[in-house]
Amino acid sequence: MIERVLEQEGALAKVLSNDKKTRHLVPTWQDLEVLEAVQKVLKPLQDFTDALSGEEYVTLSYVKPVLHLFNDSLLACDSELCKSIKTSIVEYLNRKYSDPATTDLLEMASFVDPRFRATYIPSEKVDALKHRAVLEVETLLADQSSCQPPYQRVPTVPEPADGEAAVAPNAKTLASFFKQRTATTTAPPTKREAIENELSSYLQSASVESDTDPLKWWKDHEVVFPALSHLAKKVSLGTSYQFTLRKGFQLQWQYRDLPQSISEAGCR
After folding, report:
1. What is the distance between the alpha carbons of residues 182 and 85, in angstroms, rounded to a whole number?
2. Fewest Cβ atoms closer than 10 Å to its Cβ: which of 13, 82, 149, 218?
3. How far is residue 75's CA from residue 122's CA, in Å, rounded to a whole number?
4. Segments of the chain with pLDDT less than 50
């Protein structure tokens, strides 16, 4: 509606000025300045909302990057009025997702999304988030192993009877000394070390396009990152983590705190 008013501003002023009863409704330059500022701020947000509504599904990992995008867009203001409107919108969204438990969930969801990883996580929180991811993976693996049936006992080779002659060992070769040294100096990594190594490989792996399906990506890379895939499934597929962004970004504040002259001019 604001866009139509600005487009037809000349014709609208001419029609209103022809009648004494409506002449006072002609928008002033202050009214037009406010309308242009509101249009400039809300038009990109409307385009974003339309694109968001057109997605088949929106993952929880989108929230943190979107908030980061909105906060950065404050730097692109060219007037105090635009900045004031944008600040009100961003403060509302930041306050909506400021709960510590919600913030932790949003950061973890963004962290296990291969499109974002640690890009939109504050640098001072990355190490703590890595540690929390490792602990969660350990817990998931422990729960999974406790639910699985016990492995069948592997049959052992029977020991030779007392009357059987022991087979004489083969003579040592030069290579056997190096094999023994390698076996004694290289210890297998612990479960936590294996998870940490897998996490480092995940963060250093090749970046993916922004339109990549994260669920399909994890399905294709489950063999490469078997431990982390459990955490990704929990965050991305768990019923308790399903999330809808549209309600959070409705333009309920579209006509809030506008100058008094707008309502007096009848331009709503």
Report:
1. 66
2. 149
3. 18
4. 151-154, 239-268
